[in-house]
Structure prediction request, 243 residues.
Amino acid sequence: MIDTTKRSFVKAFSWRLLAVVLLAAVTFITTSDWETVGYVTLTYHLIQVFMYFFHERVWSNIGWGRSSGLFVQMTGMSGAGKTTLARLVAERLKGEGYQVELIDGDEYRAGLCSDLGFSKEDRNTNIRRLGFVSKVLARNNVISIISAINPYDSVRKELDNLSSNVKTVYVKCDLETLKERDTKGLYRKALLPDGHPEKIHNFTGISDPFEEPLGPDLLIETNREGIERSAKRLERFIRRSVG
Prediction:
């Protein structure tokens, strides 16, 4: 839940009022003089107001501990490990106080993009919608991570041009390893002969193209390194990118 401006003001005012009453009470118990109570209370709070603005002015010029928004578009074939990595890294960053939002392609397919199919045009529209959401989040200082197959280079470049803080992460895995990992049987079904009732059509990397990105900002090859090493590399990359 998020506090409204009115609630935040009332909380701050009630806290300051409590401090005034407590200071006045302690001063009166110590001096038994109402004039001294008024002088001490007023002087103390004037000094506090001055020091607050001075303190804020100093810290506004210090970059340490700040983070800006970041827009990470992941790309990679089904089963390469995009969502697993994104979730693991997002949880770690959240635990350290970063604002992170994972935009899971499968989750958004069931909601915002439920009207889209798997033609090239629909795939690109799907990614553009995820990109718009991610751009808005990053603009509000959120680390936004798109986890989707994102197969076409042209639309990846579109997203890259949306903002200066867009990074492309290619999660790469060879086809043989993807077949071995195929817990849902998707690759097996995609490779079935035409006419088979279980065959999956328009499957990226089999019957639909996957265009490898040229010069991604980060390349992670999950068939060559374990999940923990990959997660650490992605986490370090994000930390460096947010400054």
Observations:
- The beta strands are 70-75, 100-104, 143-147, 166-172, 218-221.
